[in-house]
Amino acid sequence: MKRTNICIIGGGAAGLATLKILQDTEEVQNGTWHMVAYEARDAIGGVWYPCPPVGNPPASPIYDSLTTNLPHPVMAYSSFWFNPGTPLFPPASTVLEYLQSYVAHFDLLKYVQLNSKVEEAIWESESWNVRLSDGRTRQFDKLIVANGHYSAPRYPVVPGVKHWIETGRASHSMYFRNELPYKRQVVLVIGNGPSGQDIRTEIAKVATKVYSSITGGTPHKIGNIHQRGRVIEFKVDGTVIFDDGGPPSEIIDHALLATGYVMSFPFLPQLRSGTMPEVPPLPTQLINTSYGVFPLAKHLLPLQCNIPSGAIAFVGLPIRVVPFPLFETQCLYLIKTYRDEGTVNEAEECKNVIERFDTLYEGEGHRLESVAKKWHVLDDGNQFIYRKELLDIACATPECYPEEWALRIYRHKSELRSIWKKLEHEGQADEWVKNIGKGGRYEWVDMMDRLLDSVENQTPRSRET
After folding, report:
1. pTM, to two decimals
2. Is residue 314 a contact partner of residue 375, using CB atoms and an 8 Å limit?
3. Is 328 helix (H, G, I), strand (E, B) or coil?
4. Which stretch of DSSP H or E encloses residue 101?
5. CB atoms within 10 A of CB 160
């Protein structure tokens, strides 16, 4: 029997989940499938492996104070939990240690080639021609793209911003590491996502004034943080104009652009860059809209395009999700498609894509860019429905399915994070997690439920209550 060679691009959380799920298969264990993962950097971890703010762009956007915005019992791979006593919202360094432990526990490093960047992958009739940074070229039957979301910064399209960047007055938040460079400065932070919120809070500790620019924001002040609307012009004199009807800013010492990231696949020349098309008909070539890849079946596999459905998969495109277990779910589904080419009903999947387009197109006021932004968003319960759908098709075992408590806790993640920050500030957090998990995973669920119960009472109940 011919061996199937599988190339995985990326040694971060998505690539590692792919290796583990594939390693569990009979095909990998008996040598029918052979896999290798290429990681451009000198260690595994992807976005969780920090680096100095150098390069264009830096290899990771991790800043010193970053903690997860999901409680780790929800965030963890289904097959491997965080250590007992881990802070409920752990720092990035703990997540990196967790990934390193995951790799060691399942002996995954033997499949990974470090310092090996995939420069180009071209589909040529029946196989992938993959060129590596050291000059080697290898052939593969299947390509799994797991290179993450956070490698290419997205810059706002606003008059004057290019000049500010070129002169060093503005930079993407990808370059932010801590608040120290901004002492006694007037700083502008654009963006209200998790990173933008964290960064403005950190900088406000040392800055004279922080302007927080938020789409739809209205002028008001909390401490030295001045909320404003969207920036509509970066002026040569160092001030900015907002769309909220208020006055221009003071002279800004530095602007941090927490404006997100571009989906980037520079190694795939057959993936066309372009805008979201109006459908039907579906395009016959895969398109990178900068917000995602279109059109794909199940956010994973190409539909009726120049690359066969079974030849390439994009693991990890959905956003606003619980990522680690979602990666596992996608890979279980992918294995099913490898074993049975009839798994993907292309006509049905094309219909699903068109129906999703119609729903978003109407909901977003016929704005194609807004459709592209929302295309891979699977927030709240939709991600759990998506996971169940894939697991049903994959005929997965019961332990692979998300449990009821995971959705319940996910829906209250913001309340949990607020109360956890309060516990940390009051010095009580360590006591709350001490030894939690030693008696089994459900100790974590019980603890999170007690924390949520305490929100109405304002004061967390003790562990002994």
Report:
1. 0.95
2. no
3. helix
4. helix 92-105
5. 17
